[in-house]
């Protein structure tokens, strides 16, 4: 059935289809008409950071930037939902058009630019949510904030969301905010990790310790991964999300829209994202969990992430192309693998 729905949605521009889909999901949820959760196979709950995940398949950040549809998305059967990326102040993002489909490769290019209504708005939406599953909140910096002042933006968001998130993800890897990826390296990364760790410990006295994860890019070579992992080990980060979208265009060259600026996600990202995931698993201390994301279009793709070292996996572009049935397929495939 979703194939028919997708054909209709793909007649609309990508961003219009995105907004219409979420509004429709929200309306269906309010009417009590969302029943996909019942079709997701039961599985042994996954426990990480003291949190119980109903299943290991989550929704990646970016689909619901403002937590406007948290309850509806949670009703689809995800084991956890990550909202954001959210910034201290509202910002409109980049000019439209800023999202492009590459259906031949089951891929999307986006250059959204952290369009969101600001952290205060998101927090109010999370507070009003009735979703009982694990909620992650992904935080970033405003475009206008200089790189050397980025820590202030991240700390502002961390302060705001800490009480209301089960875990927090620090986005250092979107390719659509100028200079953001520079924060993944060297002294800039040290400053961020040190500041985040100090604030995390301070906040823990008020609302308990919340895990803070770092989301990294797929466009890293092995030497860069070793250097970043060394700092992650030194500062004892709580987890790593691997990976964000890629600037590479391998596998899509010559397709309509392939030369658009922005981050590429979907099937062409899979191999590189899994490579980075596997290399981080080899370089990180064994006690640092990994969330694998990037190019999961089928159940076996989710299993591949687990084989590469992922403790949990997340969907985004695959969910757009395959629909809620992909959640069920991934859970079933991982159940079969565990038997």
Description:
There is one protein chain. This protein is an alpha/beta fold and 339 residues long. It has a single domain (2-338), classed as Aldolase class I (TIM Barrel, Alpha-Beta Barrel). The protein is 38% helix and 17% strand. It contains eleven helices and 13 strands. An eight-stranded parallel β-barrel has the order 3-4-7-8-9-10-12-13, surrounded by four helices. The chain has a three-stranded antiparallel beta sheet with strand order 5-6-11. Strand 12, helix 9 and strand 13 (312-315) form a beta-alpha-beta unit. Helix 6 packs parallel to helix 7 (222-234).
Features:
11 helices; 38% helix; globular; eight-stranded parallel beta barrel; 339 residues; TIM Barrel; alpha/beta; three-stranded antiparallel beta sheet
First-to-last CA distance: 30 Å
- Number of E-state strands: 13
At the first level of CATH, what is the class? Answer: Alpha Beta
| Fourth-level CATH superfamily | Aldolase class I
Layout of SSEs?
Layout: H1 2-9, H2 14-30, E1 46-48, E2 51-53, E3 57-59, H3 70-74, E4 80-86, E5 99-102, E6 107-110, H4 119-128, E7 134-139, H5 150-161, E8 167-171, H6 186-207, E9 212-216, H7 222-234, E10 239-242, E11 263-266, H8 270-283, E12 290-293, H9 299-307, E13 312-315, H10 317-322, H11 325-338
Parallel strand pairs: 3-4, 3-13, 4-7, 7-8, 8-9, 9-10, 10-12, 12-13
Antiparallel strand pairs: 1-2, 5-6, 6-11
